Amino acid sequence: MSCYRNILVALDGSADAQAAVAHASRLAEDQHARLMLITVAPYPYQHAAIGVPAPPDLTDCYAAALRRAVDSVPDDVSLTSQLLRGNAAETILRVAHDGDHDLIVMGSHGHSRLHRALLGSVSHRVLHDSPVPVLLIRHAAADRDSDRPADRPADRAPDQAADGPADRAPDRVSDDVADRPAAELLGARRLR
């Protein structure tokens, strides 16, 4: 008998989230469980000052990260995906409760240390407030060393950036994704 039937995977595009998707996929195969991948885009921040441009809406970046995660799941795993908006921790907890999920899998550190200190950790909040078990995943130690800001391609100075697709910033949206509506990209891929 399977221990897990419905596994919720919360992701944010980080290396830890990618490792969480890979682990949850293997677990879903082993348990014959369904996966639901979600990512939660924050609401666009609106400046109160006149003449100050609003920061860009990053929904397309979140959609691209979700699409990459969906594409990485083996075809024999039942899968749905959703791109949601709101507070990440609150939304993950609500989806877990409303969707009758029996496990939440997520990366252990989606943000920098400074961001966690100022705003709090999404994984910490989900871990402590979840009504179901939470499995926090970290990416491999060898990969973790390259996750320091100076080593990530997106954080290199322009004169240090290497050419080629391997060094493209992970949040860049490709042309075929940018012109398609998020609903088309993120609908249910397959159900058993």
Structural account:
It is a single chain. This protein has 192 residues and is of the alpha/beta class. The chain has 8 helices and 5 strands. It has helices at 15-31, 59-72, 88-98, 113-119, 122-129, 141-145, 175-178, 182-186; strands spanning 6-10, 34-41, 79-85, 103-107, 134-137. The two termini are 18 Å apart. Helix 3 packs parallel to helix 5. The longest helix has 17 residues, at 15-31. Strands 3-2-1-4-5 form a 5-stranded parallel sheet, sandwiched between helices.
Search tags:
single chain; about 190 residues; alpha/beta; 8 helices; about 35% helix
Low confidence ranges: 146-190
From the N-terminal CA to the C-terminal CA, the straight-line distance is 18 Å
Share in β-strands? 15-25%
Separate helix tally: 8
Quaternary structure state of the chains depicted: single chain
DSSP summary, beta strand count: 5
Determine the mean pLDDT.
75
Order of helices and strands: EHEHEHEHHEHHH
Q: State the shape.
A: globular
* Structural class by sheet pairing and helices: alpha/beta
Helix content: 25-40%
- What value does the Rg take, in angstroms? 17 Å
Largest sheet: 5 strands, parallel
Widest β-sheet, arrangement of strands: 3-2-1-4-5
Summarize the structure.
The chain is built from eight helices and five strands; from the N terminus they run βαβαβαβααβααα. It is of the alpha/beta class.
